[in-house]
Design a protein that fits this description.
Shape: globular
Number of helices: 10
Number of strands: 8
Largest sheet: 6 strands, parallel
Radius of gyration: 17 Å
Strand order of the largest sheet: 5-4-1-6-7-8
Helix content: 40-55%
Structural class: alpha/beta
Length: 222
Protein backbone atom coordinates (compact mmCIF):
# COMPACT_ATOMS: atom_id res chain seq x y z
CA UNK A 1 0.00 0.00 0.00
CA UNK A 2 1.33 3.41 -0.94
CA UNK A 3 1.23 6.59 1.09
CA UNK A 4 -0.60 8.40 -1.71
CA UNK A 5 -3.63 6.21 -1.06
CA UNK A 6 -4.11 7.91 2.30
CA UNK A 7 -5.60 11.32 3.02
CA UNK A 8 -4.51 11.79 6.65
CA UNK A 9 -1.62 10.86 8.89
CA UNK A 10 -2.19 10.69 12.66
CA UNK A 11 0.65 10.49 15.14
CA UNK A 12 0.96 9.51 18.74
CA UNK A 13 3.33 11.95 20.48
CA UNK A 14 5.60 10.45 23.17
CA UNK A 15 7.95 7.84 21.76
CA UNK A 16 6.50 8.28 18.27
CA UNK A 17 7.08 11.88 17.23
CA UNK A 18 9.29 12.90 20.13
CA UNK A 19 11.96 11.01 22.06
CA UNK A 20 10.42 11.35 25.51
CA UNK A 21 9.48 7.96 26.93
CA UNK A 22 12.69 7.90 29.00
CA UNK A 23 11.45 11.06 30.69
CA UNK A 24 8.19 9.56 31.87
CA UNK A 25 9.86 6.59 33.52
CA UNK A 26 12.22 9.01 35.30
CA UNK A 27 9.26 11.09 36.47
CA UNK A 28 7.41 8.02 37.79
CA UNK A 29 10.49 6.99 39.78
CA UNK A 30 11.03 10.49 41.15
CA UNK A 31 7.36 11.05 41.98
CA UNK A 32 6.89 7.78 43.84
CA UNK A 33 10.12 8.37 45.74
CA UNK A 34 8.48 11.42 47.30
CA UNK A 35 6.26 8.98 49.18
CA UNK A 36 9.03 6.52 49.96
CA UNK A 37 7.80 4.15 47.28
CA UNK A 38 9.80 2.22 44.72
CA UNK A 39 8.64 2.19 41.10
CA UNK A 40 7.25 -1.30 40.33
CA UNK A 41 8.72 -3.14 37.37
CA UNK A 42 5.29 -3.59 35.80
CA UNK A 43 4.18 0.03 36.10
CA UNK A 44 4.97 1.20 32.56
CA UNK A 45 3.13 -1.72 30.98
CA UNK A 46 0.15 -1.28 33.33
CA UNK A 47 -0.37 2.39 32.42
CA UNK A 48 0.44 1.99 28.71
CA UNK A 49 -2.09 3.89 26.62
CA UNK A 50 -4.00 5.36 29.57
CA UNK A 51 -5.00 9.00 29.34
CA UNK A 52 -3.32 11.49 31.66
CA UNK A 53 -6.43 11.50 33.88
CA UNK A 54 -6.77 7.70 33.85
CA UNK A 55 -3.13 7.40 34.90
CA UNK A 56 -3.69 9.74 37.83
CA UNK A 57 -6.63 7.61 39.00
CA UNK A 58 -4.48 4.48 38.67
CA UNK A 59 -1.67 6.00 40.75
CA UNK A 60 -4.03 7.23 43.44
CA UNK A 61 -5.70 3.84 43.80
CA UNK A 62 -2.68 1.56 43.41
CA UNK A 63 -0.36 3.55 45.67
CA UNK A 64 -3.10 4.80 48.02
CA UNK A 65 -2.07 8.41 47.62
CA UNK A 66 -3.77 11.05 49.77
CA UNK A 67 -3.23 13.72 47.11
CA UNK A 68 -6.21 14.69 44.95
CA UNK A 69 -6.23 13.82 41.26
CA UNK A 70 -5.59 17.47 40.41
CA UNK A 71 -2.62 17.58 42.79
CA UNK A 72 -1.15 14.45 41.24
CA UNK A 73 -1.56 15.78 37.70
CA UNK A 74 -0.22 19.22 38.58
CA UNK A 75 2.91 17.66 40.07
CA UNK A 76 3.50 15.69 36.86
CA UNK A 77 2.92 18.78 34.74
CA UNK A 78 5.51 20.77 36.66
CA UNK A 79 8.00 17.90 36.56
CA UNK A 80 7.61 17.32 32.83
CA UNK A 81 7.32 20.77 31.27
CA UNK A 82 10.90 21.73 32.09
CA UNK A 83 12.15 18.50 30.51
CA UNK A 84 9.92 18.95 27.47
CA UNK A 85 11.30 22.44 26.93
CA UNK A 86 14.98 21.62 27.45
CA UNK A 87 15.67 17.91 26.94
CA UNK A 88 13.14 16.36 24.54
CA UNK A 89 13.92 16.16 20.82
CA UNK A 90 12.07 15.01 17.73
CA UNK A 91 12.55 11.42 16.64
CA UNK A 92 15.04 10.95 13.77
CA UNK A 93 13.56 12.12 10.48
CA UNK A 94 10.30 13.31 12.05
CA UNK A 95 10.54 16.93 10.89
CA UNK A 96 11.59 15.87 7.40
CA UNK A 97 8.64 13.45 7.24
CA UNK A 98 6.21 16.15 8.37
CA UNK A 99 7.50 18.30 5.51
CA UNK A 100 7.19 15.29 3.21
CA UNK A 101 3.52 14.61 3.94
CA UNK A 102 2.69 18.31 3.88
CA UNK A 103 4.17 18.49 0.40
CA UNK A 104 1.94 15.59 -0.64
CA UNK A 105 -1.14 17.48 0.54
CA UNK A 106 -2.02 15.12 3.38
CA UNK A 107 -3.63 16.50 6.52
CA UNK A 108 -2.14 15.55 9.87
CA UNK A 109 -3.20 15.15 13.48
CA UNK A 110 -1.83 14.21 16.88
CA UNK A 111 -3.64 11.70 19.11
CA UNK A 112 -1.86 11.58 22.46
CA UNK A 113 -2.51 10.16 25.92
CA UNK A 114 -0.64 13.11 27.40
CA UNK A 115 -2.11 16.20 29.07
CA UNK A 116 -2.73 19.33 27.00
CA UNK A 117 -0.35 21.64 28.87
CA UNK A 118 2.55 19.28 28.28
CA UNK A 119 1.59 18.70 24.66
CA UNK A 120 1.55 22.43 24.04
CA UNK A 121 4.93 22.85 25.73
CA UNK A 122 6.72 20.32 23.53
CA UNK A 123 4.96 21.34 20.32
CA UNK A 124 5.73 25.02 20.88
CA UNK A 125 9.35 24.32 21.83
CA UNK A 126 9.98 22.13 18.78
CA UNK A 127 7.95 24.48 16.53
CA UNK A 128 5.89 21.78 14.86
CA UNK A 129 2.37 23.07 15.55
CA UNK A 130 1.84 24.37 12.02
CA UNK A 131 2.08 20.86 10.59
CA UNK A 132 -1.09 19.70 12.36
CA UNK A 133 -4.72 20.53 11.70
CA UNK A 134 -5.94 18.67 14.82
CA UNK A 135 -4.28 17.99 18.18
CA UNK A 136 -6.29 15.84 20.60
CA UNK A 137 -5.62 14.32 24.01
CA UNK A 138 -7.20 11.17 25.42
CA UNK A 139 -8.69 13.26 28.23
CA UNK A 140 -11.10 14.63 25.60
CA UNK A 141 -12.65 11.24 24.83
CA UNK A 142 -14.47 8.55 26.80
CA UNK A 143 -11.63 6.03 27.00
CA UNK A 144 -7.89 6.03 26.46
CA UNK A 145 -5.92 3.64 24.28
CA UNK A 146 -6.28 0.75 23.41
CA UNK A 147 -9.86 1.97 22.87
CA UNK A 148 -10.18 3.56 19.41
CA UNK A 149 -11.90 6.72 20.69
CA UNK A 150 -9.08 9.22 20.25
CA UNK A 151 -8.22 8.09 16.73
CA UNK A 152 -11.84 8.23 15.65
CA UNK A 153 -12.09 11.68 17.24
CA UNK A 154 -9.11 13.01 15.30
CA UNK A 155 -10.23 11.46 12.01
CA UNK A 156 -13.70 12.93 12.45
CA UNK A 157 -12.30 16.39 13.11
CA UNK A 158 -10.02 16.08 10.09
CA UNK A 159 -13.00 15.03 8.00
CA UNK A 160 -11.28 11.84 6.80
CA UNK A 161 -12.70 8.31 6.86
CA UNK A 162 -10.79 5.90 9.14
CA UNK A 163 -9.77 3.72 6.20
CA UNK A 164 -7.99 6.68 4.66
CA UNK A 165 -5.91 7.35 7.78
CA UNK A 166 -2.37 6.16 8.48
CA UNK A 167 -1.38 5.99 12.16
CA UNK A 168 2.10 6.05 13.68
CA UNK A 169 2.46 4.50 17.14
CA UNK A 170 5.25 3.22 19.39
CA UNK A 171 3.55 0.87 21.89
CA UNK A 172 1.09 -2.03 21.62
CA UNK A 173 -1.84 -0.24 23.29
CA UNK A 174 -1.61 2.59 20.78
CA UNK A 175 -1.22 0.23 17.85
CA UNK A 176 -4.36 -1.60 18.97
CA UNK A 177 -6.23 1.71 19.27
CA UNK A 178 -5.42 2.58 15.67
CA UNK A 179 -6.33 -0.88 14.39
CA UNK A 180 -9.61 -0.89 16.32
CA UNK A 181 -10.41 2.44 14.71
CA UNK A 182 -10.13 0.77 11.31
CA UNK A 183 -6.91 2.51 10.34
CA UNK A 184 -3.61 1.36 8.88
CA UNK A 185 -0.92 1.42 11.59
CA UNK A 186 2.83 1.76 11.30
CA UNK A 187 4.83 0.92 14.41
CA UNK A 188 7.83 3.11 15.18
CA UNK A 189 10.99 1.85 16.85
CA UNK A 190 11.73 3.34 20.25
CA UNK A 191 14.35 2.33 22.80
CA UNK A 192 11.77 2.30 25.59
CA UNK A 193 9.60 -0.31 23.85
CA UNK A 194 12.30 -2.26 22.02
CA UNK A 195 11.72 -5.28 24.25
CA UNK A 196 8.18 -5.38 22.81
CA UNK A 197 9.31 -5.20 19.19
CA UNK A 198 7.98 -8.63 18.24
CA UNK A 199 4.57 -7.78 19.68
CA UNK A 200 4.56 -4.41 17.93
CA UNK A 201 5.38 -5.99 14.59
CA UNK A 202 2.68 -8.63 15.03
CA UNK A 203 0.00 -6.01 15.76
CA UNK A 204 0.95 -3.33 13.24
CA UNK A 205 0.71 -3.32 9.47
CA UNK A 206 4.21 -1.90 9.08
CA UNK A 207 7.31 -1.16 11.14
CA UNK A 208 10.01 1.49 10.72
CA UNK A 209 13.26 2.24 12.52
CA UNK A 210 12.87 5.95 11.85
CA UNK A 211 11.06 8.29 9.46
CA UNK A 212 13.94 8.34 7.01
CA UNK A 213 12.89 4.77 6.16
CA UNK A 214 9.83 6.24 4.45
CA UNK A 215 11.38 9.35 2.95
CA UNK A 216 14.25 7.45 1.38
CA UNK A 217 11.80 5.15 -0.36
CA UNK A 218 9.47 7.99 -1.39
CA UNK A 219 6.61 6.38 0.49
CA UNK A 220 6.75 3.25 -1.64
CA UNK A 221 7.06 1.02 1.43
CA UNK A 222 3.74 2.16 2.82
Amino acid sequence: MKLNRKKAVIFDLDGTLVDSMWMWKAIDIEYLARFGLACPDDLQKEIEGMSFSETAVYFKERFRLKESLDEIKNAWIQMSIEKYRKEVTLKPGARAFLEFISGKGLVAGIATSNGREMVDAVIDTLKIGDYFQVIATACEVAAGKPAPDIYLNVAGRLGVAPGKCLVFEDVPAGILAGKRAGMTVCAVDDEFSRHMEAEKKSLADYFIRDYYDIINRNGAAI
